[in-house]
Hints:
Layout: H1 4-11, E1 30-34, E2 37-40, E3 45-48, H2 51-54, H3 63-73, H4 84-96, E4 102-106, H5 109-124, E5 128-132, H6 141-144, H7 167-171, E6 173-176, H8 181-190, E7 195-200, H9 213-224, E8 228-231, H10 243-248, E9 254-257, E10 268-272, H11 274-277, H12 301-314, H13 319-340, E11 346-348, E12 353-357, H14 374-386, E13 389-390, E14 398-399, H15 406-423
Amino acid sequence: MKTPAERAWAVFPGGSLGEYNLPPALTVVLARGEGATVWDTEGRALLDFTMGWGSILLGHAHPAVTEAARRQASLGANFAYVSAPALELAEALVRAVPCAERVRFCASGTEATAYAVRLARAATGRPKILKFEGAYHGANEVGTVSLFPRRLLAFPEGEPTSAGLGAAAVADVLVAPYNDLETTAAIMEAHRDALAGVIVEPLHRCTPPRPGFLAGLRERTRRLGVPLIFDETVTGFRLAYGGAQEYYGVAPDLAALGKALGGGYPIGAVVGRADLLDLVREDRLGEPGYVWFASSVGGNPVSSAAALATLTELRRPGTYDRLFALGESLRAGLRAVLKDEGVTAQVQGDGPLAAVVFTGREVVDYRSAFQADGARRRAFLLGIFRRGIFLNPMSTKLYLSLAHAEADVARFLEVARATLREDCR
Ligand SMILES: Cc1ncc(COP(=O)(O)O)c(C=O)c1O
């Protein structure tokens, strides 16, 4: 009889649904989750520090979200048309997110950023999108150009991180160093006639923006008349109820949402300026600038109902204080453990997010983290996984949720200490 792990390796490339890159001996098959814990099919409990890659901000199987999804499922799972929950959710997004005048739903962050980029190109009639080196915007072209470049090419040349991208798709991405406004502005200026827009993760992976960086992008995009796109797939509803644009006080023209919004159910949304979103109006089909943006399952009523229940919970007083306090405990605790164990590393993140970069340099962008010790990172992450913490061993990005307690953070820190001592020398 095959084990669940062997069955997974037989049908899934790499034994997973994507990323993870676990050796077969560590591969697990999950059966259920509750709060901050997941259980595999053998009944082993693992404390979750990746939380559906951040799609679960309230905790697994949150009763209010589960009940909302169950109730809606019994009323019909999908109409591919405006439903009462989708309408209510769109109204909630317009109230919550500063730049949101209009909303169109899709089913993932990858789709949302791809559509936002398409809108920018359509609005300007120009081809090139500026992104920041090392930024992830989903599995689409812009997301995978210079995601993990191996050669540090002269800016703004990009390097595909995935095979299968067309040469034109790569050439249409201008790559700039995050947090370096001067270089970014020079690239924008040099390519102003071809520039369609700028896309940025306001919190770049876990690297915070330098004071004035986002405002500088805002000012320069406005001056050149091109849309500024915030990829808020991670930061939306996580750094603040209104996302990074509320948290940092800089409103983009368009924003991509996903992950936490859906409470674990598939969701994506592009929100932003009405004149930009209105390019997708189907009565404009055939007109210049019309953008095709449609999805059979985008804005489906089950995901919308789960999202509405999620937002109701997030609006409760104290939500963000709690998320930020947990994140601060984790980051401060990691710094202390790394120091005690004599390991040189940077701990980054904000709100309920943390990441460890094994380097002595201050990390402000992709290149400052490029020389980091990848072998130590892998040993650290696999060691933590082996000791009963569920995380993605391809990334040190850790996601907390409202279901985590200080005791869970303490347990993580204990495990991190043991791993550094025993596996990372
Ligand atoms: C910043 C950012 N944008 C977009 C995405 C893609 O979202 P999805 O996996 O829902 O397609 C991710 C996923 O990790 C992300 O971190």
